[in-house]
Amino acid sequence: MKATIEHKGELYKVDLAKPIDISIALSPNGPRAWYVDQMKIEPVLSQAFIGSVVLGGSVNFNNIHFNPHGHGTHTECYGHIAEELVYLNRVMNQFFFIAELISVTPERVREETEWRKKGDSIITLKQLQSALRSNDAEAIVIRTLPNSIDKLSKNYSATNFTYIEDEALQWLSEQNILHLLVDLPSVDREHDGGLLKAHHAFWNYPDNTREHATITEFIFVDDEIADGTYLLNLQVAPFENDASPSRPVLYEVL
Known about the structure:
Layout: E1 2-7, E2 10-15, E3 20-21, E4 40-43, E5 62-65, E6 74-76, H1 88-91, E7 96-104, E8 107-108, E9 121-123, H2 125-131, E10 139-144, E11 163-164, H3 166-174, E12 179-182, H4 197-203, E13 214-217, E14 228-236, E15 243-252
Parallel strand pairs: 7-10, 9-11, 10-12, 12-13
Antiparallel strand pairs: 1-2, 3-15, 4-5, 6-13, 6-15, 7-14, 8-9, 14-15
Helix pairs in contact: 2-3, 3-4
């Protein structure tokens, strides 16, 4: 099933029968962060009902307990940092975008600031400026190197994981990149005193908020997928929440 997409006067040909899923499934064995326990999938059990065929019930009927920010691939809107209630499913009204996939090897911080510490692993403005080639991209997908399969199951809590300079996300905002996808638990430092400077910079919140912009975290891009331009289908569940489990899917441009 092949399609031709017109975007900003350019034609992009893709094969919709060859999706490239870069999400990490919600699973008790999946990655987690922010000190949450493993997610749980458990059958409903009561004296009147058994929600498990194996245990003698007629159907499988599970409760699922998870945190959208702490478990698996998720997409969030500016409601994540806003005082007002903002729901992702209400501000996100498009789901296909031209995306640029780049690979970046994080650098080590040499000079400390109030919240940025020497030795931190960080993605810098210069790195993004060097790596981003497309002028038509609406989304950027960042794969960090080395690209270990540990990303599929790691507990990132208390690891001071890699994060992104707020100056870099301010620049992406200025380039009209509406959707940022990363294989990190967060674009901000694990402990930054609650500043969340990178989130604020990307959304321009609160002064000139980019209401339709999103950040997707906890993706995984296999090494076999080449850097370059793709069609992105960013699928999200319709939760009334600032964030939702999501399934970003890439299509190679032919």
